[in-house]
Each structure stands twice: as C-alpha cells, then as structure tokens.
Amino acid sequence: MKAIILCGSPAVGKTTVAKILASKLKLKLVGGGDILKEIALEEGYNAVGDDWWDTKEGMKFMEERAGSPEFDREVDRRLLARAEKGDVVITSYTLPWLAKDGVKVWLAGNKKSRAERMAKRDSSSPEECAKVIEDRDRENFALYKKLYGIRFGKDLAPFSIIVGTDGVPAAEVAGAVLKQLPRPAKKPKGASGRRRPT
User: Fold this and answer.
1) 76-135, pLDDT tens digit by residue?
2) Could you tell me the sign of the dihedral formed by the alpha carbons of 103, 146, 80, 17, in that order?
3) Domains and CATH numbers, the chain
4) Considering the entire predicted model, what is its pTM?
C-alpha cells in the first residue's frame, strides 16, 4: 500500500486520526517527533518516553537545533525515505509537497475549533490556545516558505483527500478518510501470475 500522508495546521487532530488509521489498516505510524527522537538517540541523548520533550534534556536538544534549516531537512529526508517504502501512515507538515507518491490527506479546521481542541488536550484556556495557534500558523508558513517555497495552508494542490474536522469526532474523520482511500486493484479471475506456454 502507498504511504498515507496526513497534514494539516497545528491542533487539527492529525495525530489522533493517524493513530486510528494506522490501527485500522494495521500499518506503522511515523511522525516528525519519531524522527527527532531517532536523531537524538544517534547523538547520545536518552530520548525515551512520550514526555521526553518536556525534560531538560529534551528541551536542550530542541534548543540546540532551533532555526537550523539542515536539521529540518534531515527530518524531512528520513520521512521521505519511509514514505517511499510505503505501508505506513505519516504525519508531516512538509511531506505532501516533497513526496512524489503516496495518498496525501489534508485535515482542515478553523482556528476556533483548533484552539478548543488544543485547550482540551493541554488543559489550557481556548483564548491562550488561540494565540499559540496564531503564532504557530504564522511561524510555519514563514519557515516552510523559506525552506521549500511551500505556501503552507494556502496551497492544497498536492492533496487528493480533504476532510473537515470542525466539531467532528476523530473516529468519524478517520472513517471519512478510509472511505476515500484508493482501493487496491483486483486481479482478474483466473489470473495466476504465471504465463501459459505458447
């Protein structure tokens, strides 16, 4: 199966939907965070556990690499290699524009619903989260425009599937994506794959 690449603005529900898809399709799930941990382990960090990013070591690792275009490109190179092998669900901000192949899915959500989702997830207020989302949207657009010329969130040309997430439970969003996935081609009846002697 081709790689399924999920993209969308921050707090649109990518990770939750990706987990459901990976589980239903029995595929491996890979995201930028997994690649970051892979790199951290190679550099001798003890990058273990979901909360490693919140440790002093995790924050130090990210601070050292902040603003390094080469670091971002290395993460994308590794994700691209995973996508090319297929049989994987990937969450990425940039891969839909970089990968030649794969099923590319854009999860759409307005700022209000994304702020509400983030507030619920992080036990914060929707007002605080709305500000964080606004900052991250602006930073993402500037970063990916500079790195690759991508108009993140504005150019949706790479996507064959677009699903709205506003007020929709993650399971329903995942269901809508599953319904739109291309079906594998069926072999004609009686086709064994072997040529008959002439």
Assistant:
1) 999 999 999 999 999 999 999 999 999 999 999 999 999 999 999 888 899 999 999 999
2) negative
3) 4-108+158-180 (3.40.50.300)
4) 0.85
